[in-house]
Amino acid sequence: MVQLRGQNRVITTCTVKNGVVEDFSSISLSGIGVRTFIDGKSWGFSSTNKLDFKSTEQALDNSFKLAKASSQLKKQRIVLEQVKGKTIDLFSPVKKPPHSFCTEDIVNIPLEAYKGAKEAGSRVADIKATYVSIEDKKHFLDTEGARIHQTTTRVLLFINIIAKSNGLLCPISENVGHTGGLELFDKVSPYSLGKKAAENASRLLNAKAPPSGRFNVVIHPTLCATLLHEAIGHPLEADLAMAGGGFGDHIDELVSSKLVTIYDDGTTPYGLGYFPYDDEGVECNRTILIENGLLRSFMHDKTSAALSNVSPTGNAHAWDYSVEPLIRQTNIGLQAGDYSMEELVEDVKEGLFLEGTFGGQANINADFTFGFQRSKWIRRGSLAEEMRGANVAGNAIKVFKTIDAVGKMSVLRPGACGKYQSAIQGRIVPAVRCKILVGGTGD
Amino acid sequence: MISNTDRFFLTDAVHKSVKALEKKGISQVEAFYTNSHATEVSIRNSEILTQNQVYDAGVGFRVVVTGGKVGFASTNVLNEKAILEAGEKAFAIAKVSSEVPNFALPKGGQPPEIRGLFDSRVAEITAEEAIDVAERAMKAAEGFDKRVIAKDGLILFQSGWRGVVNTLGVDFEEPETRAVIYLSASGKQNGEVTGSCSDFLFSREADVKPEIVGESVGKKVVELFKPQPIKSFQGTVVFSPQAVSYQLAHVLIDALKGDTVISGRSAWTGKLGEMVASEKLTVTDNALLEKGFASRGFDDEGCSSQKTILIKKGILESNLHNATSAKALATKNTGNASRSSGGFNIVRMIIGNGYRAKPDIYPSNLVIQSGNNTKEDLISKISKGVLVESMAGFPQAGSGIISAQLSRAFYIKNEEIQFPIKGGMVSGVAFAWFKRISGVGSDAKQFQNAIVPSVMIEELKIVGP
C-alpha cells in the first residue's frame, strides 16, 4: 500500500504591534510526502520539497526502504481496512478568499484590533495583533484508487495585550478563527475584540491573585474548550489510549459523569478542524466518543483501528506534506446540557468562576494542566470579586466524574495543539461545573 | 545526505536573486536559506512506530525600502524563478508596509569558527543505524526493570547548511549536524500506572549513547511508584535541570529579550545594573561553546556570535539583542537573532521555523553557571521541601506566574527524600523566586537552547491535591 500526499500552502501573516505594521509575510510551501506499508506490519515515510519526477521516485524508494528496515522488528500484524478508492474534489466554503484582498485590506484587520485595544486606556502597555490566513490545496492518492483533492481556507486573528501598572504586568489574549475567508470579520469585529481584551487586562491590574486548593468551579466555554481538548480529548486519541493511559480498554464502561456526551466531527461548518477527509483518505464524520458517560469509541487512524478491530474514524491528520499523519482531534464537541449560566452559578455556595485560556498540556495517564486568564469568586450562588489567572490541574477521569451540570449554550472556539507536530482544530463547547485543583498564587 | 548539486544550486540561486533585487534600487536585501536532511525514528508502546526521512530546503527574503519599511516572503519551491519571485514579493510587501522604527540588519564581519558543529557521520547515518539507536534506548529502559514500558520516543539525526547573505556585506554559510534522543516511559504494577518520565540527549555527534538515556528513564520510572498526596505547605524546592530548562528558563528568557524590554512587556524593563536575582545566579548566553547544541558562528541574520554575560551574581548586566533591538536601545548587538525560537507561540507553530520565518530574539545556549553542590548536597540542607524533577503547565511570560502541576516530584523531610508526590502543584511568581535562590547544583545538562543545573529556591508554595 502506498499513500501519496501533495500540497501547496500559502500562509499570509500580518502583525501590528503598538500601531506599527511590524510584520507582513507571505510563505509559499509545496511538497510531497510518500508513505509505504509493507509486510502487513510496517510503515515508512519520506518527504521532499523537490517536485521533479526523479525526487518523487526517490521519496517513494526511501519510504519503502525505511518500512523494510524495521519490518523484522515489528511484533504486531496489522490488517488495514480497505477503503474503496473515491475520486473527490472538495472546496471548503469561502465567501471572501484572502488572496483576493489587497495588502491594505489585510493590514486593516490587526490594525482595527489595535485601535480597539488602544481605547481601553493608558495602562495598556503593549498591544500585538496578528492576522493569519492559511490557503491549502491538498491532493491525496493511494494504491486503493483514492484521488481526493481538498481546497481549504482558514483565517485567524490573535490578540495579545499586556497591561501594566506599578511594575505589575497583566497579560490577556483573545483569538478567533474559522475555516472560511475574511467573512469571519463580518461576524466578529477585530475592533471590539481588541477593546474587550485590553479592558480585561487593565481591569485585572486591580484584581488579586486567585487562591489555591480544590474548588467547585464553573468553567466558561472559552476555558472549557481547553478542558475538553487537553483533559479528555487527548486520552480519547487511540494512540495515547493504547499507550495504557487513562481510558485504556474501558469501552462501554461508565468513565465520566452521565451528563457528558463527547464527539469529534470533521464536518462542523466553520470549525477550524473542518476536514471532510483525513490524510489517509478516510471520511471524517461525527464519531461519538462518550455517550451519557459511557465510553463508546476512540479516535482512530487506519493502523490503530486495525489493531482495535474497528473501523477508522478519519482522525489521521498531518500538519503538512512533510510529516506523517497521526491521530488528531478535528472539531471536538461536548453536547450542551440544560443549565443557563445563572443556574450554573446559583447552586455554588463557595467556588470559582474560571474564564479565558492560556493553553495546557496532557500526560499519558490522563493527568492534565492548563491555564485560565481570569476568575471570579462565587459566594452563596452569586458572582463576586474578580481575580487574575493561574493554572488548574487534575486527572481527566476523576475531574470528568465530578461534572454535575452542563450549560445550554454551545460555542465554536478555535484551538491549537502541539502533539508531535502542529495542528489547528475546532472545539464546540458549553460551560460546565465540576471540582478541580487550582494553583493560584494568592491567599 | 544532501548532494553538492542541491546545495550549490540553492546558494547560487539565492545570490543571483539578491543581486537582481539590488539592481532595482532596493536599499537593503537579506536572504536566509537552509538545506536539511533528517532521519527520524519514532517509538510508541515498546515498538518502533515508524521511520521518516525528510528533505527540506528553502529561502526567506527580507527586503527593506527607504524609511525602514520591511517585507518578508519565503518559499521552498526550488527553482530560480520561484526564488526570485519570493524576493520580489517581499519587495512588493515592503512598499506598502509601515516603517519599523530602528530597523537594522547587521553589517558583514568575521564570524568565529566554532568547533564541533558538524559530524559527517550524522550526515551518513542509515535508517538501520537510527533504528538500532531506538531499539537500544528502549531495551535499556525496559531492561532496567520489568515494570517499565517505553511509551514514546524520538531519534533524530539531522544534517544541513544554514546561510545568510545581505547587501551590507554579510555572506556566510555554516554546516551543522544534530542528534537527538528523546525517550519517555511509564511503569505498571498491580494496576498502578505511573505518570510518564522522560529524558533527552542533545548532541552534535553521531556516536550517541542511547543506553544512558534508556537507563536514566527506567530509573526515573521505578522511583515514581507508590506516590502519596501531601498537604499544602511552604518550603524549600530543588528544581532539577529538566524543570529549570522549561518553565523557569522560559520566564527568564522572555524577561531578557531586547524586544520585550523595548515594548515594556519585560518585568526587567529599565533594570540594567540592578539586582534582579539572588547573588547565586549568574546567567550567560554562549554561542561559542565547542559542540554546543545551539552554538553557531553567526546568528540567523548574520551577526557574529559571542558570549554575553546577562546576569552576574544577581545583577542584570545585559539583554539579548538582534540588530534592530540593539539599535533601538543604542547598545551592542549580542547576536541573538533566531529563526527557531522556542516558547509557546501559536503563530510560530503555524508558520514553522528556519527559512519560513523572520528572526525573533532567542538565546543560543542559555547557560546558568553551575555551583559546587551535587543535587544530594542541596537536598541534605532541606528540613522540609520538595524535589521537582519535572512539572507541566505553561508559565505566564511577562507576569512570571508559574503554577505548574508536579509531574515528577518528591517530598523531602529531615534532609532526605521520603516519597514521590501524587498530584499537587507549585505556584508563585518566578521573578520573586529568582531572588530567593539559595543554591545551584553542579549537575548542568544540555537542552535544546539551555545548559542548566539544579536550582534550589526558598519559601515556595506547594499546593496539595
Task: Write structural notes for this entry.
The complex is a heterodimer of chains A (443) and B (465). With 443 residues, chain A is of the alpha+beta class. Chain A has two domains: 2-204, PmbA/TldD superfamily (PmbA/TldD fold, 2-Layer Sandwich); 212-439, no CATH class. In chain A, 21% of the residues lie in helices and 42% in strands. Chain A has nine helices and 22 strands. Chain A has helices at 53-71, 103-118, 184-187, 190-204, 221-233, 238-242, 302-308, 341-346, 396-401, and strands at residues 2-17, 20-38, 42-48, 87-91, 124-142, 147-165, 168-179, 212-219, 262-265, 286-291, 294-295, 316-317, 326-327, 331-334, 350-362, 367-379, 382-387, 390-395, 405-406, 411-417, 423-429, 432-439. In chain A, strands 1, 2, 3, 4, 5, 6 and 7 form a seven-stranded mixed sheet that branches. A six-stranded mixed sheet of chain A has the order 11-10-9-14-21-20. In chain A, helix 2 packs parallel to helix 4 (190-204). Chain A starts with a strand and ends with a strand. Chain B contains eleven helices and 22 strands. In chain B, helix 4 (127-144) runs parallel beside helix 5. Chain B is globular. The mean pLDDT of chain B is 94. The interface between A and B is large, with 95 and 93 residues. Strand 3 of chain A pairs parallel with strand 2 of chain B, so a sheet runs across the interface.
